Amino acid sequence: MTITDLPALNATLNAISALCLTLGYIFIRRRDRVNHQRAMLTALGTSAVFLVSYVTYHANVGSKPFPGQGPVRLVYLTILVTHIVLAAVIVPMALVTATRGLKGRLDRHVPLARWTLPLWMYVSVTGVVIYVMLYKLY
Question: For residue 58, how many other CB atoms are within 10 A of its CB?
């Protein structure tokens, strides 16, 4: 694996996180706390590996400008800006949500998790969308 492989790895890690988040949601709806916890901690770990890979790539390569023009550029930039802002927000939210869950503070975990899950899902899915738009469309 080389540094140029990291964007594809990052997209894969984002997709795995989204899958784990979906499974975690399904498990908790079924009241399966053990598998919910496993899925959510796997999503957290996968996201942590993503963050290390992302920083490594951008520290070595820098940014890649979006080559598209016209309306697709506006769509890309809208997705990118919302992704970046929410990615910064989701890191502490996910850590606090996980900590509260692990400590059994469900009275504080559940209300925060109701916000954390959709935002984290958005960040994970848009990470894959950004990869496709930036590296596969042009």
Answer: 14
pLDDT in tens, the chain (138 residues): 999 999 999 999 999 999 999 999 999 999 999 999 999 999 999 999 999 999 999 999 999 999 999 999 999 999 999 999 999 999 999 999 999 999 999 999 999 999 999 999 999 999 999 999 999 987
Query: Token pair of 100, please?
Result: 């509260």
C-alpha dist (Å) from residue 104 to 21, 88, 100: 19, 26, 6
CA–CA separation, 27 and 41 (whole Å): 13
Give how far Cα 69 sits from Cα of 103, 111, 137, Å: 49, 41, 12
| Domains recognised in the chain with CATH numbers | 3-136 (1.20.120.80)
Tokens found for residue 51: 């963050």
